[in-house]
Amino acid sequence: RQPRARARFDQPTLQYSHRNQNCSTDTESRQTTLDTRRNMSQIGFIGLGIMGEGMAKNLIKAGHTLAVWNRSADKCTAFAAGFPDGTITCCEAAAAVVKSCTLVYVMLSTPEAAKAVYEAADGILAGVSETSKIVDCATLAPEDMIRLSKQVTEKGGRFVEAPVSGSKGPAHNGQLIFLCAGDEALFKEIASDLDAMGKASFFFGAPGAGARMKLVVNMTMGSMLCALGEGLALAESASLDPKQLLEVLDLGVMANPMYKLKGPKMLAGDFDPNFPLKHAEKDMMLSVALGEQLKLGLPVAKAADGVMKQGCADGDGDLDFAALYNATKKQAP
Question: Where would I find the 6-phosphogluconate dehydrogenase NADP-binding domain in this sequence (predicted)?
């Protein structure tokens, strides 16, 4: 792997640092992992969905044993079955994970899920003590992250928000980008874990700042994909070859990995979910709400949110967010 990027945002300057990683043979890597696992404490992981499963696997590859919990218990059972060596312990409740592990990563899909899992009688907060370290990787509203941070720290625990930029593939391949805020000392303590799960990590300051950056990133990404969908729809309606449009875009200043990946999938109707449309719409809605709080109109983001809402209303919410292409092709009344 390439050296991992790490950055801390201190206004008005930005400082970068890189950590070098030594290469070894596969045999050496396997032995190192086994030896390391014997000396590493168990950590917790709550939420084994599209993103969480890949992230948890990369923590295991890094040498950790895991205590896990998921709202759907069958996912825990299936996940543990892939590691018959006792690497995985399935817990009956989120509180049990927190009580059994000093460090716990949380990856839940929606604000509603986060609130339910944190505040349940046997939820995360029920297990938090003065030794607890909670790292929440979900995409939530800034005020949600601020609330969670306060709830954890009021019980003596420590909290880092670490929403990720990336979807199913990067989560599986350890190529996520972590956008962190909160307890800076804890952020530094978990550096090796973030390196195992991602290609870069950033620290933005007080609780809520990481969530704000994540919403800005996803707003930009969603708006760009809506623009591509409209471009493909217009090209096709104008008797042009949309594949040639993708070729033209890829040779100019608008070339980017997302268009290269999602453009062909749009044309092929391949919408296997890496980032479900319903979650993309949730993020766009939160971005628009943030803009309204800051007195920004965000007309492009609002239009993109409308396209995504239409796609969800049409039954495409569980498909990949590239399925918004279907909504862009609908004829105007």
Answer: 42-203
